[in-house]
Amino acid sequence: MQLIVKVLTLISLLPFIILSCKGFGYFSGLGANPIETIIHFTGQWGIRILIITLIITPIGHYTHYKLFNKLPKPLGLVSLFYIINHFLSYALIDQGGDVKIIIVDIIETPYLIVGWGGFLCLLSIGLVSFKKLQPWFNKNRSTISGITYTGAILGVWHFYWQTKVIETEPVLLSAIMLLLTAWKFKISKDKS
């Protein structure tokens, strides 16, 4: 089972490998606006993998198949990897690492405020996922789950809002997130 988890985790990194190859001019390169391509590509894959991670939880809940209990943490960390790259691409490449410009841009741009909130939620989860913190992590699963869902909702909102026009993927991810959140509330209500 550990081998399957490792293989699926490696598969989830394939888009990043493809992006890296595009950076070196393969697969048609990065297009006319390479910075925008990198920022959008890493953000989209971060939210896609996060949503897949959240979808795995109800599947595991109903099937009781152990693989579905082992996948969320590594896939969630892969999602965080993409989201960190998304933020760093924006902050370091697009804004040149100028903290003042970044802060002003975040404050003045509503979808960046939402994205920043989602980023901080997911970063906080990533920081407590180390093995040394495993007992605390296990004891506080409901809190961690709530923060993860909050981060995912903010991430989907950020994605939807920044497109500026109605596109299929953000609408689809919004609908999936709505269903997942309703399921989470139902499960929480059933436990209490």
List the helices and strands and how they pair.
Blueprint: H1 2-12, H2 14-23, H3 34-63, H4 67-70, H5 72-94, H6 99-108, H7 110-127, H8 134-139, H9 141-163, H10 168-191
Helix pairs in contact: 2-3, 3-5, 3-9, 3-10, 5-7, 6-7, 7-9, 9-10
Describe this structure in words.
It is a single chain. With 192 residues, the protein is mainly alpha-helical. Helix content is 83%, strand content 0%. It starts with a helix and ends with a helix. The model has no long low-confidence stretch (mean pLDDT 91). The chain has helices at 2-12, 14-23, 34-63, 67-70, 72-94, 99-108, 110-127, 134-139, 141-163, 168-191.
Largest sheet: none
* DSSP strand count: 0
Low-confidence region ranges: none
How many individual domains?
A: 1
Instruction: Count every helix, treating DSSP H or I runs of 4 or more residues as helices.
Output: 10
Question: What value does the Rg take, in angstroms?
Answer: 17 Å
